[in-house]
Each structure stands twice: as structure tokens, then as C-alpha cells.
Amino acid sequence: MPEFRRVADVSEVPDPGRTLVEVDGEVVALFHVDGHFYAIDDVCTHDGGTLADGELDGFKIACPRHGARFDVRTGAALSMPAVRPTRSHAVKVTDGGVWVALGPMAGPGAFLSGPGATMPSGATVSSSATMPSGDTVTAGGKIGDAAATTGAASSPPAGTAAAAPVAAAAAIPAGAAEGAVTEEAVREWLKEVKDPELFVNIVDLGLVYGVTLSPAADAPDRLHVAIDMTMTSPACPAGPQLIADTKRTVGARPAIAAVEVRIVMDPPWTPDRMTDAARDHLGIF
Question: Based on the number of CB atoms within 10 Å of its own CB, is 283 exposed (0-12), middle (13-18) or buried (19 or more)?
């Protein structure tokens, strides 16, 4: 079981404030909010960016890269584009110092939390660790506590209903079904391509910037389709799969001879590009 390590003096971190500390060789973001200390990994689970440099608003820290927000008390992911929590750590305050013990790694049941977010059946959230003495230590340490302490984990509001799934893609326009392939038809086909983490199609996510149709060089009676699309971040781990699925989905149509996917990072993707259907599915209001 990880041991508590003294990482800072209480006076070193203003309230509100944050600092980076090292615990057993790992970089941890330490927060001081409303008289309590909290510790989470300094890692945005969306693309691996640092969190400590982001904007701290109460108990919420925003990733400076794409705006994903996390609860500093529990590590819970509160907003897109992050869907998995970052790891939280046990904290105690004693003898004028702040002590941190590394928490367990997030398991496969990690999920987006917050209003409107859905949870796997039977999943639970806990940010507490057990000390060798058998006392329970929460993620927050309060000044003046002799050992471990206060700082309760937050959980989704009681009675929050599961968000409805994104509506099924509309039927392909009649003209496209009869062989007249259009940009609109291609966009409808692309609704079959879904982000493997968010389970929302790439059109509703706002990843498709443009579609260009032209006669194929080696098959003039068929089409070459060029698709300009982006990713939620330059290091998006789902990128290769989304590109492959896009080529496969569009290329499977008889009228298509070749599919070219061009990744565009300017302008960068932001959550504002999502449709209302995607926002409803992800619990973003």
C-alpha cells in the first residue's frame, strides 16, 4: 500500500491555489481550496496535457488545451472532451505539512461524471484510501486535522436521468440512393463512423470540416472523395481508427473509387462544434 509522503508545507500553497509536487517519482497536482487540500494526477485524460496550468474555478480545474474540466476533489471528468477521470490521491495535513499517498489506477469502469452523464450498470465512485491503521482517508486533507480527513467525494445528483442516445442518422437522400452522390449523402454515410470512446458519430461531434467530390483518375465513371476532418486534439488516441473507419465506410459504396482523408487542425476543434444531438447524448447543457 502506498505510503504518505510529505510534499509541501501548508504555508507554501495559497488558498485558492495549486502547485506541482512529486510523490514516489510521479508528478501530482496539489490544490488548496476552501481550507482543504486535494491531489490528482497532473494529466488530462483526453490527450495527456497538464492540468495544473489551467484555470481553477472553485473545485474545478480546466485543461488549458481543450477546456476539459475535472473535479479536484475526486478527479472526475466533468465536461468534454474528457470522458475518463484522472486519478485522485489521499491527502492529510499534520505537523504543518501536507502529505499525499498515491491512489489506485483508474480501472476499466471509468466514465464521464456530472449532470446528465451516464454510468455503467453497478458502477460506483470512490476517492478514499485506507491507512495502515485502518482509518479511512478521503481525497481531501483539512488544515488542523491531526491525521486524515475531510473533503467528501462528489457524485452525480440523485435522480439524474440517463441521457438519451443520439438520434439515428437520417436516411440517405433519394438522389444519392439512386446513384447521384452528393456532399450531403457522404455526410450521412459518415454518421456511421463513431468515436470509440464517446459513442457519438463524427458528424455530430463536428469533426468533419468539408467533403469534395471529383471524378476518379483511373475510373471516370466513379468518384474520388476527399474528406477534410479534424480530431479533438492533435494526439487523439482514436485518430487512426477514425481515419480507417471513415475510409472503409465511404469506400464501401459502389459509386466511390477512392477515399482521401485530410486531417486539418486549423481551426482547432472545440466543443462548440458539436450538434445539439451530441450535446444531449453527452449530458452537456
Answer: buried
Reported as a single tens digit per residue, the pLDDT across 94-147 is: 999 999 999 987 544 344 444 333 333 333 333 333 333 333 344 566 555 434
Q: Would you say 205 and 195 are in contact if contact means Cβ atoms under 8 Å apart?
A: yes
Kindly report the CATH number assigned to the domain that includes residue 203. Answer: 3.30.300.130
Given a contact cutoff of 8 angstroms between Cβ atoms, the answer to whether 75 and 127 are in contact is yes
CB crowding 173-186: b at 16 or more within 10 Å, else e: eeebeeeebeeebb
Do 138 and 223 lie in a common domain? Answer: no
Domain encompassing residue 101? 5-142
CATH of the domain at 57: 2.102.10.10
**Cα–chain center distance at 157:** 20
Q: Which of 121, 142, 163 is the last residue of a domain?
A: 142
The cell numbers describing 38, all together, are 486535494
pTM of the model: 0.52
